[in-house]
Amino acid sequence: MLRNILLLACLTLTACVPSTPPLQLAENCRAELTAEQLVARHWLSRAGIWRLRQGALLEVGSKKIPLEGFLRLDLQQQEARLLAMNAMGVVLFDLQVTAEAEQLHRAIPQLQQVQGLAQGVAKSLRQVFLLPRPEEQDQLENRGNNQRLWRSQPGGSLGFIFDCQGDLRETRQQAATNDWRVVYDQYQAFGEFYLPMQIVMNDYQRNVKLSLWISEVKQEP
Length: 221
Description:
- There is one protein chain.
- By secondary structure, the protein is mainly beta.
- It has a single domain, classed as Clam (outer membrane lipoprotein receptor (LolB), chain A).
- Helix content is 15%, strand content 48%.
- It has four helices and twelve strands; from the N terminus they run ααβββββααβββββββ.
- It has helices at 2-9, 35-41, 109-112, 117-130; strands spanning 49-60, 63-74, 79-85, 91-98, 102-107, 139-142, 146-153, 156-163, 168-174, 179-190, 193-203, 208-219.
- It has a twelve-stranded antiparallel beta sheet with strand order 5-4-3-2-1-12-11-10-9-8-7-6.
- β3 (79-85) and β4 form a beta hairpin.
- It starts with a helix and ends with a strand.
- Residues 1-7 and 9-15 have low confidence and may be disordered.
């Protein structure tokens, strides 16, 4: 078990990059929303507090580590708090993440000794749930069954792909200091909101792939 726990922290391990899932979009529809409508519909741009139970598979090179987690996601405050457990239900760590910082509230002794653990996990959580976000001033590309909002960045670009329903399906950053991709899939309705039940993040610089399957959704009043 200790060996698997330590692998969780090895986010800079050099190995083959895990494969990236293809983006599958409906073909028999047209995407015709404005940039303002896309930003407003984006599920992470709306105010609200969600409690998400999720299974996860962390792939570091050729290593695969199954995990379970409870995530409290406060979209108004741009804050995520993750309680992560292994497959046997042992709590590994409790991590609070904001757009600017992170705080490790507790962790098992083996993980407390691993340098960069909180920073590595926090970066993944930010990429998936907090930042960056599409903006109304981004450039809009209409591409038939999907639309893309994007902006230039030093050494590359940052882009967001929306399907014909206006749901965010991909965030992709290719820049001098960051090269990563997040795919959102299997949206389901929860009241007036639509949330993705499957999320896959690939960080190509760190050779890390994180797959999330959301199994339970609750919204705080």
